[in-house]
Amino acid sequence: MSVRRFTALFAAGCLIASAGVAVAQGTNGGGYPARPITMIVPFAAGGPTDVVARIVSDHMGKTLGQQIVIENVVGAGGTTGATRAKRANNDGYTLIMGHMGTHAAAVPLYPNLAYDPAADFEPVGVAAGTPILILAKKDYPAKDLSEFVKHVKANSGTLNMAHAGVGSVSYTTCLLLNSILDVKPTAVPYNGTGPAMNALVGGQVDYMCDQIVNVVSQVQGGSIRAYGVATEARNPALPEVPTTKEAGLPEYKVSAWNAVFAPKGTPQPIVDKLAAALDKALDDPTTRKRLLDLGSDLPEGDARGQKALASLVKSEVDRWSKVIKAAGPGN
Asked: Any signal peptide, and if so, which residues (predicted)?
């Protein structure tokens, strides 16, 4: 055998061997991650999902030894970003911070949805629960929730409600509120909760429903009004805001959630590494404080992990299918 031919065969063998090692590492997670990871946030920067994603991914990246880069992909109530995540390579280098809208309420809202939240993603784990508040512009003519309800019922035809797109948390939770009150204001969509909140602060819209992580500073600063938090107990981040039950609207009880998903088929050892990194982030005192200061509810015990998230997605799809069906045609 000539030296040239031997060299060529040896080089080819090395390439095949290195490819085999790479495949093995990708399958068993041993070499993962070898480069930065992208986490898709299906809304604009500055919104609640974006905030949670940046806080959690910062610590996860330190645990994994690689940076997690946030990519904001806006449109269609978060379903544009979720569709991109579904179609990404299932090698662990593309994740999505999904939420109640993208991975539950979107199913009944979008008949031709390009993905199935349960079938097209590997659940990694819940990152945070986010209580919902009923909010209005700072000069809204109602001093409390009871007056707000009366005013909305009497004037819904002239009121504007902001939301982050059909299927978003701000849309679905206000859809539930409007259904309870039997009103249909003009719904004004924005490319994310951040822009919607800016419109509320600027007085361009009358009211909206939003996740607490997006509004603490605005409520405390008086740039918007908060009439009630839709949970059983008051939230430590905004203790002065009554629960909807306290304020006379016990029917309105709802909270949102954010969770990490990977594309379907991502190797289980990689999913396990991601889930462990998420757990470490949620156990880290600094990360916990950052999330709790924003009013988040953090998952504990059985509420964590892959199985818990898979179960949550199923139950939430069922729940929001009933809510949206009850809201009637055109929502």
From this structure: 1-24
